Amino acid sequence: MYDSIILRTVARLMLPILLLLSLFMLVRGHNLPGGGFIGGLLAASAFILQIIAYGPVHVRRIIPVNFLGLAAVGVIFAAVWGLIGLVTGQAYMLAFWLKEPIPGIGKLGTPVLFDIGVYLTVIGVTTQLALVLAEEPILYPLRRRPVSADRVAPEA
Amino acid sequence: MLLTSVLVTFAAAPLGLLARYLPRPPIGWILALLPLAAFAAFAAQAPAIIAGERMSQAIPWVAAMGIELRFSLDGLSLLFTLLVSGIGTLIFIYTAYYLAGDPGMGRFYVYLTVFMGSMLGLVLADNVLTLFIFWELTSVSSYLLVGYKHDYADARRGAQMGLLVTVGGGLALLVGLVLLSTAAGSYTISEIIAAGEQLRASSLYTPALLLIFLGCFTKSAQFPFHFWLPNAMQAPTPASAYLHSATMVKAGVYLLARLHPALSETPLWIYTLTSVGAITMLIGAVVANRRDDIKGLLAYSTISKLGTMVLLAGMGGPEAPAALVATILAHALYKGALFMLAGAVDHEAGTRSLSQLGGLRRLMPWTAALAILSSLSMAGVPILFGFVAKEEQLYAAVDNGLPAGLDIVVLIAVVTSAVFGVLYAWRLVSGVFFGPLGSGMKAHVHEAPAGMLVGPAVLTTLSVILPLGLLPATAALLQPAVNAIADDGVKISLYLIPSELSLPLILSMTALLIGAVLTRFEPQIAAAPSPLPLWFNGDRIYDAAINGMLQGATSFTRTLQNGKLRSYMTWAVLALVAVVMPPLVLFGFNGLVLPNLAGVGPFELVSALLIPVGVLATLRARSRLGAIIASSIVGAMIAFLFVIYSAPDLALTQLLIETLATVFLMLLFAVLPVGFERLTSDSERARDGLIAGLAGLMMAGVAFAAASNMQFASISQAFRAESRSQGFGDNVVNVILVDFRGFDTMGEIVVLFIALLGIYAMLRLRPSVEPTRDDEEAPTPPASLDGATPPEHGQQEQQETASEPWLKA
């Protein structure tokens, strides 16, 4: 969108940092400030920064993810862990935890997995929304397709 | 047995589709085995029922709400089940011939079978909610049958009218039945009936009864709801004969008879039913004499007889219950036969118009013979069963339970309808079968196929032989039905030849005589001006109501959904204020505790004061960018307050949302002009300001009321205490989100996803996006951003150059 060398450089540098930060927020969320929602928003803002700096075509190329599908996967992922309760004859979404913590990750339980589902949903929804807007031909009519010189709109 | 009969009928409904694969007329005989089996099964119960037994069967359905699938069989139910299954058998046979060339016949059989199951369920139901469900199912199957020829606009209209009127009445019935059950303390009909005294004394009696009346009157085509029945004659004739004369339209009468022991003999019951029944009876009888369409004539005569039945259910007196059941039986016999014969005439002659028919007695001798006999029964001519029933009616009318003065009026009304009955029976017979050959008929009219005459023949035979020797047996069969309607001790005694010359007999003969004389003036009567004012026409009122509703909905939608974002906002905020404000003002401020301002430090004060500054700056901003930045002051200050009050999760979320919201707005605003257009007048701004101010006041009030409400202990202590032990996490906010209140979060992410789908569909799945992409037209902004002008030149050029690197990369 904005043809700025500074913005583009910063955006490129920030992408891995923001993504790492978002994962960090997700993982530590159960005990310290953070969590799936905040982590998801951070990751989405990392992608949106790329959209602003480089435009949607570039982002589609470097991050070949179907974000609409990602959002759907997130919802299903969040919902599916609740089924354990149903299968064992208890309430839907009853929490289950592993007895022993996994080294390096910590204690694992269905609420954490549910949080990952939230994380994926938020990334998918937010990024897809930004892409839909940035790829909207009414808003950005000349961005989607190569336009030869003689086919430029007369007003332009 | 009761449960099985209903469930098997429903389960067997898809068998009708065999009509596509099996040879046509025989299929009717095969499918007719189903109603025949039901008839045999119910007939086998007759001796036990006559002996005074009562069968009952129940299975739990929605146990938590006390809804059972409860059925019971008593005399009244037996009469109706025999009619439904017996006439059903004849109709199933008849249909195969009537629709012989119709590719959709299988579908028709499916609907018919579903109807039969519903009707059996209705008359067997012993639980009010079971009854209601089958009641509505009969309306739905009637809708499907009337709309069978759905490529005709009239059929669709008739089907819709019948559905709206009867289902609408059905909803009233549901409320009435629930009120009644509340008053009686039971959903079981037999228990409700046993609680009669208590019900009549209850304060719920009047509303419950009026609502039940509404349901019964719409279903049984009583004035002023009778107009749907003639329009339902768009149905193929088998359905008209089955549903709209012999069975379904009697459901209202059935329910009135069923509830008679519990609810009758109050002024409300007597006067409502007597007046509505008498008016319906007279209007039906008069209008039947003005109809040119033979099915229309039969429809109005059915309305007249349904009115008679309601009158008999209402007026009281020792003979009325007996007269009611006799009328139900007699009417089903002759009217079922006449409808089928009318269908046969239509089928062979190609028209149903009296003015185009005539002289068919030579071309269709068997049809003519059967129709003449059944019409004589309809007219109440001696030795036919119609005469027996009419005698009963007149006995009941002479000895009615009404106060002096009114009893004479009702008697005169009954006699008058008998006179008109003679007249329309004569019109039908003379117009179709006598006189010169009709002008509008097919060239070579033949006798109807034998299969079409089986049904009418059976019913007509019954009309003839029941009075000739089977009257004691008939009376024995009808006695349990009478017992179900009235207290024990009322005896039904049918007779053909009265032992003495009594007033009813004289009246009956007089009616026949006057009717016979009036046949001389039949054309004048048919052409006489309508007794009702022109506007008072159910059809017209119905059309006006439907059109008014559609136009109202259209203009309502145009007002609310006018495509302008600001008006959507206005309506949404106004609705919220209208809903929340009154209870808040009335109840919200009881025991209001003013906030303790002692703990407010300089940081809180500064950030709190900056919020209104941000709001004012947003309002006064001249450019879009300025407005976005000014509004983000508000968000940032709120996040800051979260930080001060130790809510890092909320602060983080708020900041991220604030950032992303700014980005999204920028994505939209980047292509709009820098400055704002002024689109509203000062008065509009003042109005919007007022609405916004009200909404703000309301939210502040809600916050105050919530903060000062100390009726319940705060849940936060419990969450904090259990976060570690139960949720295995130290971040209480996160544990609440993913564990304690995980279900809420689940809902929220689903909502988020659905919102995305909506936006995606709105922007991406537009039909015109792809083709217009390369158009030379200037891009037009979306309609919701009203007043926006197309992007300016400089901006667009800038975008174009900016796009180059992406394309090359």
Structure commentary:
The complex is a heterodimer of chains A (156) and B (809). With 156 residues, chain A is mainly alpha-helical. Chain A contains six helices and no strands. The longest helix of chain A is centred in the last third of the chain and has 25 residues, at 110-134. Chain A is elongated, with a radius of gyration of 20 Å. The two termini of chain A are 17 Å apart. The model of chain A is unreliable at 143-156 (pLDDT under 50). In chain B, strands 1-2 form a two-stranded antiparallel sheet. Classes of the chains: A mainly alpha (156), B mainly alpha (809). At the A-B interface, helix 2, helix 3, helix 4 and helix 6 of A face helix 29, helix 32, helix 33 and helix 35 of B.
| Proportion of residues in helical segments of chain B | over 70%
Helix coverage percent of chain A: 55-70%
Average pLDDT figure of chain A: 83
Give the biggest beta sheet of chain B. Answer: 2 strands, antiparallel
Largest sheet of chain A: none
What's the rounded overall pLDDT mean of chain B? 85
SSE layout:
The complex is a heterodimer of chains A (156) and B (809).
Chain A: H1 5-28, H2 36-54, H3 56-62, H4 67-80, H5 83-87, H6 110-134
Chain B: H1 2-12, H2 24-31, H3 33-50, E1 55-62, E2 67-73, H4 75-98, H5 105-124, H6 128-146, H7 153-184, H8 189-194, H9 196-201, H10 205-219, H11 228-231, H12 237-246, H13 251-263, H14 267-288, H15 294-315, H16 320-349, H17 360-363, H18 365-379, H19 385-398, H20 406-433, H21 450-465, H22 471-485, H23 503-518, H24 522-527, H25 538-560, H26 565-588, H27 602-620, H28 624-644, H29 648-669, H30 682-708, H31 716-725, H32 732-740, H33 742-764, H34 769-772, H35 793-808
Antiparallel strand pairs in B: 1-2
